[in-house]
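1st attempt posting a full record on here, be nice pls
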Amino acid sequence: MQTVTRPRPYLTEQARPVAIDDRVIAGLRVWAPTLMRWALGLVFVWFGVLKIVNLTPVAGLVADTLAFVPIPSAVILPALGAFEVVVGIALMAGRVLRPVLAVMVGHLAGTFLVLVTQFNVAFQDGNPLLLTTEGEFVIKNLVLIAGALCVAAALPMRRRG
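the predicted structure (as tokens):
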């Protein structure tokens, strides 16, 4: 007696969600670094332009944090803004990413000076667990730093030799 085998469907019912998930993850690996690079670039351009035209809500915070720098805030704020715009454009253009990401992370790390130089502005009632609006504005830079590191991790390896 001869057994007839029926053709198996491409995927079983249980395997279809796994295959879909695998395709989504594969697509994310391709597109997520570019999307993150563009999102970071857009944020940097936006925040930079606000500093250049002196419409940023953090002008006083930046000026007070950098009070030890012997440059007037009327100069330093637009200079920081111009720097941020250049970084943002470079990110969106996808050019010279290694040095751009390095200076971006350095710049973002510098924003944590607020937590040291203006402790009472960053934390409610001196409690380091209770952030003020200004403190939250600074702490969110951890996410921007992590985003920059994700973009850097997706860069092609340099060839040796």
